[in-house]
Structure formats: C-alpha cells, structure tokens
Amino acid sequence: MAHLAVIQTGGKQYLVKEGDTLRVEKLEAAEGDVLTLEALLVMDEDGKSVKVGTPFVKGATVSAKVTAFGRHDKVTIIKFHAKTRYKRKAGHRQPFTAINIQGIKA
What we know:
Blueprint: E1 3-9, E2 12-17, E3 21-25, E4 34-44, E5 50-52, E6 61-71, E7 75-81, E8 86-92, E9 95-105
Antiparallel strand pairs: 1-2, 1-4, 3-9, 4-5, 4-6, 6-9, 7-8
C-alpha cells in the first residue's frame, strides 16, 4: 500500500508520495546522493491510517535521491517613484535542488 507523507525542507512543507520529483531549496549534497528526511505526517492513500508527529513522526523517514541542480526562471523586480526620475530594475534566479522520492518508511 502506498503512503503519503509531509516533509519539511528549506522552511517549506511538501506533500509527497513515492516516485514524486520536487524542486526544493538548494541543499548541500552531491548529485546522486540519497538523503533521509524526517516526516511530519504519514498516512496511507485512503486516509484511514494517519500518524501525526510532534513535530516529527517517530521512526518515519522519507528517502530521496538528488537528481539535479539548477536555477528557477528569472523574477524581475522593478522599483519606481513617480515624478522623481527614480527607476530601478533587477532580476533574481533562485537556486534549487531537484529530488526524487525513493521511498516512505512509516
């Protein structure tokens, strides 16, 4: 039976299942490394068996493989003040780590 889990990384929480690919905040790991993440919540697909942690579920882990690194699309930032000849334009590309969820151990 497949499991769903909620994991936390980079200050954000993600609902994941086996086989999912995510783009999370940049992690200090090499490509091909297998990471072990702790689960905040684990449940089966029907939602009948739910385990909620305080804050983590004891013994529940999610294994994920680092597949790639990259940068998101550019976000343009514009500042403008009317009537004062003030205008600033800048861009930002946030780095990410792509991970593939290998398994959820409840």
